[in-house]
């Protein structure tokens, strides 16, 4: 299984996700998104939910990073937060499971360490990716034995709100790369081909791009914001 991660070095992972409130929310549509990504040269797919992963795996033979996003009232952790999500994901056998590895309180008070130990004991073949938001979390993920660490949640926690991965020439990515030796996955607001290439040139093992490829509503909003700014400047 280690070869899965090794084969992603220097390549692009495309995140094919659409939540329930988004127009493209559909396992069929996500599977076609994954097929388009595969034909475009993507090396792997990141996907949310059992039904989406099941549909995607019928369309492409690429490795899948599986997650389940689920809200818990007592916790801000929502990406593969508990054993329940891990068990559900393993029914469709993703190659890698990504877990929220932030320092925030987890549902039912279960520790990240306990969740990692549970997954290793019950599903030793699956690789684990740590979605983190700080350098300290990246270091802790390495201590806990994660196979790779992703910058996924940088800018999406209370502590890091307002920041983005490309800010200051990917300063956060550089800090994570300097702090850990396990492969680092660049993910989060990588919204141009140039930024993706820059992340890899800095030493990221692989890069995940989502909204810039698979969320046309967000892409349209970016165009409209730029057009609006142009109109204001010209007024």
Provide structural commentary.
The protein is an alpha/beta fold and 235 residues long. The protein contains ten helices and eight strands. The protein has helices spanning 2-6, 27-40, 50-59, 83-90, 112-122, 135-144, 167-179, 193-202, 211-214, 216-234; strands spanning 12-16, 44-48, 64-67, 96-100, 127-131, 148-150, 184-187, 206-209. It has an eight-stranded parallel β-barrel with strand order 1-2-3-4-5-6-7-8, surrounded by six helices. Helix 2 links the parallel strand 1 (12-16) and strand 2 (44-48). The longest helix is centred in the C-terminal third of the chain and has 19 residues, at 216-234. The radius of gyration is 17 Å and the shape is globular. The N and C termini lie far apart (58 Å). The model has no long low-confidence stretch (mean pLDDT 95).
Q: In total, how many beta strands? A: 8
Shape by Cα distribution: globular
Would you list the SSEs in sequence order as H and E? HEHEHEHEHEHEHEHEHH
Strand coverage percent: 5-15%
Distance between the termini: 58 Å
Q: How much helix, percentage-wise, in residues?
A: 40-55%
Largest sheet: 8 strands, parallel, barrel
The whole-angstrom Rg is: 17 Å
Mean of pLDDT:
95
The poorly predicted ranges are none
Class per helix and strand makeup: alpha/beta
Number of alpha- plus pi-helical segments: 10
Strand order of the largest sheet: 1-2-3-4-5-6-7-8
